[in-house]
Each structure stands twice: as structure tokens, then as C-alpha cells.
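Supplementary material to the annual report.
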Amino acid sequence: MIKSLFGVSAAALSLLILFGVSLGLQGVSMSAHAAVDTFEFATEEQQQRFRRMSDEFRCPMCQNTSLTGSNGGVAEDLRREIYLMISDGKTDEEIEQFMFERYGDFVFYKPRLQWTTILLWFGPLLFFLVGGWLILGIVRRAKPQEKEPVVLNKEEQERLRDLLDTVKDRD
Amino acid sequence: MPRLKLFIPVIVFLALAVMLWRGLYLDPRTLPSVLIDKPLPEFSLRTVELGDRVLGKADLPDEPFLLNIWGSYCLPCLQENPILMAAARDDLVPIVGVNYKDKLNLAQLWLEDNGSPFEFSILDESGRLGIDLGVYGAPETFVVDGNGVIRYKHIGVIDYETWEDEIMPAIAAVKAESRQ
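Predicted assembly:
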């Protein structure tokens, strides 16, 4: 009796702990977004754009984080600038231009398509095509080659028949 | 010809190896500034030293000068201060500061404690001028020519070596040009 009671309370306790942990985790993920969500937008669409753009721009100071994920001073300022520009009714292109003029290609997680980035964009396709071409070549060469049908002239046919006949006679 | 084909993998391997080897020694922190040869941005801000007086681009020196981004919180700025002080003392080049994302009283205290190499320091509390300058953290130093055009940018602390090998030559080049 006591044992089973103990079992039940242990189960309840572990459930409680689980619940608490998940709540805590939720709190963490919510606070991670909180840094972004302090801005008030007029429309839902503007907010979506803000989220997308601060994900796509790279924080100049911290190298491998987006503006969204960074608490660096510059990242904070740049998020504010993006917010102001979106509220001002600036287009995505205008905001990208603003960032480019100050921080260069570095800020784009998705590099712009231009001469210097052409290999970056189409390199994989190039590798794929070259690889495919090589494989095709190898497969073709590996195919067993069909033999040409042997054609005997009259003399040869007679020799063959003679040979066959001698074999037969031997039996 | 088919002989040559045999060497293609080796050639590709060597090309990749050379590229990746070089990549190991590239510093990801030296970002090319897009602002080289661009005019300084407009601003109208107060300074650390001059009280309520608001300065703009027109108040900057009309000879080549250094624009140094600093803050009282910035340890490398403390490290490079003696070099800037020496340059100011020897009248090598005028130095204008940008007090970047700092508090006025802290900035004033820092200058009192460590000495000021600056003609004046533009007070950029919000970091907005910093954004226009493509700054991403103090210290950064621009070499600006007499027409207010950015000619060189150094990111990070200036030690004696960078002063001798980068900053001074950049200043000398700009000065030589303006003499012509």
C-alpha cells in the first residue's frame, strides 16, 4: 500500500518536473523572440517583413549570427533602423540598398546575384553537370561491347565443314 | 591526349588545395569597407567638449584628418590612446573623435583620466552616425582627406606597427595628393 502510494507520488512528481521544464523552455524561446518583438507595427505584413529581413541580414560585429539572433550593439541599432524604414514605407529593395551602402555584401546572408557571386550561385550546378558528364562517360565505357557477327567466305566455310566432319569421324 | 586526361583529378585537387590553404589564412574580420572614396555622411550632433553647440560636416577640419571611433567602455581604445596622443602632440595630423554609443559623463571622465588626443569628439549616443559610417564596433579609424572623403579605414586597435605601416602611409598619400 505504502509502496504503491509512493509510486504514484513519484510519477506525479516527475510529471510536474516535466511540466515545469517545458514551461521553462517555452519561457526561454519566448524571451529569444522578445528582443525582436518590442517594436509596434501598423500591420501584420510589416511585422512579417521585419522578421524576415532581420533574419536575412548578418550582424556585422558578430560574424555568424543574423540581426535577429544578435544582442550586439550594432545589431540592435540596425534592427531599429530597419523598423523605422519599414514604418516609413520603404521597400525591401530600398532597405537592402541602405544596408549595402554601409556594410557591403557582407551583411547579406543571401548574396546578391552579380559577377563576383556567380560562382557561388551556380558553382553547385556546375559541379553537378560535370559530375553527371563524368559518370555518364564511365558508365558508357563500362558497357560490354557487342561483337560484330563473324562472316565467313566460301573457302572458310568449307574448311570449317571439313574440320567439323573430321571431329565427327573421330567419334 | 588521353594521358593528359588522367591528370585532371590531380589538377582539380591541387587547385582546390591551394584555394582552401589560402582560405585558412584569410582574416574573416577584415571586411572591405564600401565607404572608401565616399564622402563622410551628413550629421548634426553635439560634442563631448563643446556643451550645447551642434556641429555638422562643415565643422570638420578642411585638411586631411583622422576620424577615430571610441567609447569609454572600449578597452582597445584605451590601448591605442597613447599612440593617438603622441600623434596629436607632434602635430602629425588632426584627430576628430566619434564617441560611439556612450554616455556623456562617462566619456568626459575617460578623457580626463586618459587625456584627449581629439580636437573634439562628436557625441553619437544613438549610434546613428556609426551606422552611416558602416561602423560595427569601437575602435575604428578613418583617414579622411581635405574634401571630407573617406580614404582609408582601419578596424580594431591601432598599435605601433599599424600606425607605422598603415595609418601613416595612408595619411602621407592623402597629404601628398592634396599638395599637388
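The CA atoms of residues 48 and 142 of chain A lie 55 Å apart.
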